[in-house]
Every structure is written in C-alpha cells, then in structure tokens.
Amino acid sequence: MTSITSILITGASSGLGAGLAKAYAAPGIHLVLTARDAARLEVTVAACRDKGASVATGLFDVREPEPFGAWLLAQDEAAPLDLVIAAAGVSAGTGEDDMPEGVDLAAMQIRANLLGTIHTIEPLLPRMIARGRGQVAVVASTAALRGLAYSPAYSASKAGVRAYGEGLRALLRPKGVDVSVIVPGFFDTPMTDRWKGPTPFMMSLDKMVAAIRKGLDARCSRIVVPRLLALGQQAADLMPAAIGDRIVRRFRFHIDPGH
C-alpha cells in the first residue's frame, strides 16, 4: 500500500476537519488545510506544526469553485495529494417555530455541503487518475440515511454527498483511486452544540476522529460511526412512511442561531 504523506482537509478550522488534521500531523506529513475563519484555522495550523507536520493553508469558501479550484491544482502540483478529505460543512434547521427553512437557508446548506464537496474533489480527480493512486473521503451523515423532520435541507445535502461518494467509488476504484464514504452520527463539536434536542449515541470528538482515522487508514469503502444510530435511521427508512415519519418527528430539535 502506498504511504500517505500529503493530505488535503477542508473545514480544518474546527470540528472534524481540525480533529483529523491534528490526528494526521506528524514529521514527514504535509497537510494542506483550508477554511473560512483565519484565526481558528491558525490555531489548527499551530497545533499541527507543533507535532512536526509541514502545513500549507488557504482561506476559501468551498461554495465558490474559483479561485478555490485553481488553488487546489497549485497545491497538488507542489506536493501531489495522496488523501483528500472534504470535511467542510454547515447546518441550519427549521428553528423553534417549526416553519420550513426557506430558500436561502436550504440553498446555503446544499451549496456548502454538497457542492462544496464536489468543488473540492472534482478538480483533483484527473490528476489522481493519471497517477493511478490516491484516496478521497467525503463526509455524509446519518441524516443522509433518513430525512430529519426538523432539518430537511441538511438531510438532503448529506444524502447527496453520500450518493456522490458511492457513485465515485464505483467509478474510480478500477482507476486506482479509493473513495471512503464517512457517515458519522452525533459527536461533540460547535455544530452539534447548536442542536437543541436529542443527540442519541453522542460521542466525543476524539473518539469520532479515532474511528474515522482507523477506517481511512484501512481504506474502508464506508465508515459508519456509530453503527447503532445508522441502523435506527435505516430501519425508519424501511418502515411504512407514516410510521417512519412519526418516529423522526419525535426527535425534535431546533438550531440555536445565537450560539
């Protein structure tokens, strides 16, 4: 197996992206990290450099394909990427009044979560295919397995990410490029802190990062953590729609906009 020395991670200023960056940081590892928040990204960068990694950074909004795409190609030219982790993501939700999210919030989540993933991966695929090696990881969610009543657009965005990753994997494996589809449940991050409601099978960020890192190192096709939550979501999807709808309505939450 080809060793991994050059890694791109989006959303590296906090949460899963920052956690994975720190987990991979070590002497001989080159990290390419991007996010929108310069101050928070710098905290991650400092921690990674303290562990001996070399780090290149860029401040980009993954919703915008340019100049992000040109920057990605320049980074790959300087240090060909072995692993690409599209971890940037956002959530919104219906709020306390249970009204629909509206066009702006719904579209924002689709652009950031689904299109942001596509904008991260597509520019790099021709180079990875030409090299005949590499690994891509997309971050979906257990919300991708059965739409959540109080966050339909988030669920849709993550379902799109999951389907995109599954399709890419089937397409790219014969070309030497592996794809891992990550399906995490609830874990301790600032994004989860904004969700006011049940968080079944909640995990610490460190445990989630360790589980995902283990799966990525093994080049697993799917990394589902925790499995019990995913099984519950899949069971709700297999039930008659009326029963499944009643179940997901019970997991009522809202997003705290002021957090």
Query: Over the alpha carbons, how many angstroms does the gyration radius reach?
Result: 18 Å
Estimated helix fraction: 40-55%
Note the beta-strand portion: 15-25%
Give the helix/strand class.
Answer: alpha/beta
Outline: globular
The level 1 CATH classification is Alpha Beta
- Major sheet details: 7 strands, parallel
Major sheet: arrangement of strands: 3-2-1-4-5-6-8
Can you name the CATH architecture?
3-Layer(aba) Sandwich
CATH topology (fold) name: Rossmann fold
Number of helices: 10
3D architecture notes:
Strand 5, helix 6 and strand 6 form a beta-alpha-beta unit. 41% of the residues are buried. The longest helix has 21 residues. The chain has a single domain, classed as Rossmann fold (3-Layer(aba) Sandwich), CATH 3.40.50. Helix 1 packs parallel to helix 2 and helix 4 packs parallel to helix 6. It is α/β, with parallel strands linked by helices and 259 residues long. It has ten helices and nine strands.
Question: What labels describe this entry?
Answer:
259 residues; alpha/beta; Rossmann fold; 9 strands; globular
Task: Detail the topology: elements first, then pairings.
Elements: E1 6-10, H1 15-24, E2 30-35, H2 38-50, E3 54-59, H3 68-78, E4 83-86, H4 102-121, H5 125-131, E5 135-139, H6 152-172, E6 178-184, H7 190-193, E7 195-196, H8 205-217, E8 222-225, H9 227-238, H10 241-250, E9 254-255
Parallel strand pairs: 1-2, 1-4, 2-3, 4-5, 5-6, 6-8
Antiparallel strand pairs: 7-9
